[in-house]
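Study this chain:
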Amino acid sequence: MPSVLYNNGMSKYRFSPLTIILLSCTLYLPLLKNFFWSDDWYFLWISRISNFREFLQFFSFGNNLHSTPMYRPLSTQVFFSVFQNLFGLHAAVYYFFSILVWAVGLYLLYVLLQKIFEDKSYSLLTLGIYGLSASHFARLSYVSAFQEVLMFTAGIAAVYWTVSYTHLDVYKRQVISDIDF
């Protein structure tokens, strides 16, 4: 196995999951200068609410002013509504939160990989390849794609919890995993 250590004969540089996650996130910091575009405006518009009844319409399967053809109320309407009420149209906050949730997902991925591989080198190498993949650019450079970031983080958390609680019976593990989804 290739080691994730670099040895030039004089010193060793160790990579930690935090180093890889911070490096991955640093690559996306220029996105904080972006503004909203495309579907972002649509989600900002349908997420404007003035009372609790309208909030409940986010979760309706019927056609109303606050519903979309894609039923993803937590990662779209609730996300946009909460952030719009708290931060207005300051897009950097939306991008920063998306990057933060993605970083949590990367950490959970590393912890899961540790359980699977039981080898820090494999786990770090896999995390590095995944965390530095160019495929994340579209997810993180588009506020409306927060649903994909949240899906990654929640999915990894569900798998981790399912694997971690093997001492529980199957029913209890399924309930814990379902709560996450």
Notes: Residues 1-11 have pLDDT under 50 and may be disordered.
